Each structure stands twice: as C-alpha cells, then as structure tokens.
Amino acid sequence: MMDCHEAARLISERKDHRLPWRRVLELRLxxxxxxxxxxxxxxxxLLTRVSRRAGEIVLSAxxxxxxxxxxxxxxxxxxxxxxx
Amino acid sequence: MVYxxxxxxxxxxxxxxxxxxxxxxxxxxxVDDHGDALFRYAILRVKDETTAExxxxxxxxxxxxxxxxxxxxxxxRTWLVGILKHKIIDHYRKSRPEVLASDLGPNEDxxxxxxxxxxxxxxxxxxxxxxxxxxxxNQRFWEVFxxxxxxxxxxxxxxxxxxxxxxxxxxxxxxILDITSTNLWVILHRARNKLRACLQDNWFGAR
Lengths: 84, 207
What we know:
The complex is a heterodimer.
Chain A: H1 4-13, H2 21-33, H3 35-57, H4 70-83
Helix pairs in contact in A: 1-2, 1-3, 2-3
Chain B: H1 14-24, H2 30-43, H3 49-66, H4 76-94, H5 116-121, H6 132-136, H7 139-151, H8 154-165, H9 170-177, H10 181-204
Helix pairs in contact in B: 2-3, 2-4, 3-4, 7-10, 8-10
C-alpha cells in the first residue's frame, strides 16, 4: 500500500495538476484506510481556502495590522508631488 | 473618502459619483486613501518591507503617468491594485531568488523539514477548527499566518503566494518563476507542509 509520505505528496500535487487515474485510485484507497492522511487532506484544504480568502480581504478592512511607515508615506508623497 | 466595500450601500446618486471622480483625479490624496491597503496587499506577497514600499511607490508613479487613461468606470483602488499586481509579478521576474538544490532534488535531506512522520509520533493529527472567514477576522491569526509565510524560503513563498493566494495556474507560475512544473510541484508541496506545521504549532495546536 502507498505510504503516508507518498500520499501526502499526492494530496498536495492534486491541487496543482491532474494525476493519472491509477494514482488517484491508489490515493483514494490509502485515504479509506488512513484517518491521519484524511485529516492532513482537510488541513491542506483549509490552508488553501484561508490563503485565497486572505488575498481577497487584505485590501478591505482586514485585521492585518500593517501599514506604511510614516517615513515611507512621506517619501512616497514627496516623490509623487515632485513628479507631477 | 468612502469606498464601496460590498457591505454598505453603494453610492448611487450621480452627484456623489462625480464628486468621487473628481477626488480620484487628485493624486495628493492617493497615498492617504490607498497607501495602506496597497501596502498590505504587497506585504502579503513580498516578504521585505522596503521592497513592498517601493512597489507601492512605483504603483502610484505609474498611475500618475497613466491617469488620463483611467476611465473612472472602476473604482480607483481597483485600478491601482491592477497596477500593483503587475509590479509584483515584474519584481518576481527581475529578482529571482536562488533556488537551492536542497529545495528540489529527489535525494534531498528532509531531516530539517516538517515531515508527516513527526505528526505520526503523536496519536493523530488534530482536526483544525474554524472557517476561513472566522479565522481571518482575528488579528492574532493574521499575525501567525503572515509570520509563517515569512518563514518560507523566498522561492517557496512566491510559488505558494501565486498558486494559493492569487490562484494562478501552474504553467503561468512556471513562466513567472522560470522553473519546471516538476520543480514547482515539489516546492508547493514543501511550502504547504511547512505552513501546515507552522500553523499547527503556532495556532491550531497552541491554544
């Protein structure tokens, strides 16, 4: 049977490209018998969804508390007004 | 200046629109209105703060040159983000991080990697609680998440960000990063593994 290492690799790769049907079948078989890899699969799926969502909401009122430093802000303003 | 954020009612009357359009034309307000949002967008995708600041500055400068072509059909911010996106991809293309042989090779030493076996020592992997929206409402989660991203090697971070944050297709990413698809898959697998372990240690398993 496919080991967890191989299963983990395929769980990830499946997100990026189509696997040969045989490999998919082997992976499915592994997942039927391995709860740990099922959980791993779910965790990677949540990671994917969190990442996509983070990319979308980072522009709006996201709680990511990063902002331009006062120095950078001033530098950019100066640069803009000297260019106009 | 208030922007339509999808939640509050959109400014519908023509007067407000015209007023907004006028304000858009005044670059003096751009940095205060959009600088932080653009910076957050950039810093999620680029680790280095100075680089992110430079990208924001270049975005404004390009916007200034092209402002006559801005139709005002879309919000100014959407237009600026479009420019920033291109700047980030350009930056990825221009400054390619070194991809170490140990990042890729089939005989790589994985002893330093977060391997699945590590979890196998524990009785079982833990189910992760929470939905993307509930997690991302939490400022501390953002800190952990972006901290974990920052720990990835630069090449891994870029691949992950293009694939998982921006949703680019594999072949597009290969072109941008100038790597083969086999290498991309290896890198993405490693990046996901590392992030998974980092989130487990610092968030899901840490409470």
